[in-house]
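Appendix B. Extra example for self-study. Work through it before the problem class; the solution is given directly after the inputs so you can check yourself.
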Amino acid sequence: MARNDQNHTTQERLLNEAEILFAEKGYHAVSVREITKAADCNLAAVNYHFGNKQNLYLEVFRSRWAPRARRLQEHVKNSLAAQSHFSAAAMVKAIAQAFLEGPLSEDEQLRHYQLITREMAHPTEAFELVAKDVMRPAFRELADGLRSVMPEGMSEERLMLNILSIFGMVLYFNFARVAVTHMIGCQYDQAFKARLVEHITDFSLTGLGIGKEEEPR
Amino acid sequence: MARNDQNHTTQERLLNEAEILFAEKGYHAVSVREITKAADCNLAAVNYHFGNKQNLYLEVFRSRWAPRARRLQEHVKNSLAAQSHFSAAAMVKAIAQAFLEGPLSEDEQLRHYQLITREMAHPTEAFELVAKDVMRPAFRELADGLRSVMPEGMSEERLMLNILSIFGMVLYFNFARVAVTHMIGCQYDQAFKARLVEHITDFSLTGLGIGKEEEPR
DNA sequence: ATTCATATCAAACGAACGTTTGATTGTCAA
DNA sequence: TTGACAATCAAACGTTCGTTTGATATGAAT
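Solution. Structure tokens for the complete assembly:
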């Protein structure tokens, strides 16, 4: 039986191809026939191995998205552990770098953000899954780290809004690549991504960098 | 012939209901039957008035999204014109306020951002349409305004990245409502939106507000 | 009264969808 | 060699999809 993907099982090939297609087109725009064709297996394989299409979609988040998110979280943690002292600048840079120049390949990155962006805009069971198991713990940990370098007495909400904002910028500059390149007019190559990390870091630390002016009344 | 929506024409009712449904579920997850049922008209009406489903989708962006985006742009422009002198703080606040507490109703806002978020993550012909006619001109105008209050000689790219970042934060806090409320644990009521405007303004102006620290080496 | 264009309708079209079925294969323990 | 089991297959299932068709109603112009 000819199998192009080395010794991957049918289950694994289905998950791989399903993730690519779901990320690219969204759940409803992808058919089971399209997935099984890409995975080079029979149409019935999805139902045999996963029960139905919906469950294959959930399994993509369980067995592909969540572990990758945890890898990213580890990457950030290791970057910070390598610092001799903890600073806000180091933290922001570690996040931006992990998510834009981190351990993920170009394609993996794009898939990762497209999948979660769809879920954030219109959550399904998959969002509940990764929010509970991955996102909330990661956010909490980052917020606790940030607390130690922010002015004392900052409310929990402000703290979370700051973390959400940093994460939001990273997410935005990833999922909105097409829009960004349309507006700026350049490719997402290695050089531009480095400049982007620099920009996100700067912006998250100092905003526009010109402080708040009093408005005349 | 009983028509519930006052004197709206079938075309208008189709556009209204189509926008609501496309924003809520996305193009492929909405059927023509669902739209025509919501608009209380015959199944064939979509093809009669718009040719096909795809063209109805495009017409939603042409005749509903684009004018609303222009209304928002006007709102920002008027807010700024009311200022006696132009400042970065005023500009950021005008943008955040227009997009979160501006002329749009709660529902309109949600629809507006869900539609464009889908297009940014996976652009179709509709994105080309509104990018060329609405978004690019608006971004250019904002960048020109920002240039006058930023240090001289700032590169065009940095200028655009700043504008994109402000816009990105606003977009993010709108389309990712569900995620934000999941993480923070509160509703998007009027009070929270006001705090959000304050946060976005502060963050865009001063970031975390603790400057950039030197990393030890 | 007749004509004509516009709009709406019920009904049907073929295609694609997710899922199920029942037969067939390969593997390995008994 | 046999039996059992998991995996794969072609084929078909019933639904739903976007679209088309041809008939019917409406209103203004001739």
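Self-check: Residues 53-81 of chain B form the longest helix (29 residues). If your reasoning did not lead you there, revisit section 3.
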